[in-house]
Amino acid sequence: MTYSELKSLGLDLEQLRQLRRNVNMLIEDEVHESVSDIKVGSWVKINHKKCIGKKYIVEKINRKTYILADGKGARIKASLGLIEAA
Prior knowledge:
It is elongated and about 55 Å long. Helix content is 34%, strand content 27%. The protein is built from two helices and five strands. It has a single domain (12-85), classed as SH3 type barrels (Roll). It has a five-stranded antiparallel sheet, with no helix packed on it. It is an alpha+beta fold and 86 residues long. A hairpin with a 5-residue loop joins β3 (65-69) and β4. The longest helix is centred in the first third of the chain and has 22 residues, at 13-34. The two termini are 31 Å apart.
């Protein structure tokens, strides 16, 4: 949806804030569903330009981040939004 389409809806400020809250909740739900099957020991990929084509093992799962190992001894901290199952 483009800016002009939103503008043409004629929503007031409170309705726009509610729309933003709903969209943010939907995004969080999608992120949690996509990483819900990832457990400690799973192989994952990171959606970042520096990590293209690399796979990592999940070592620890925190509330907002994952601690990953590359198999060579290096550890990486990545947020939930960047993680995808390999």
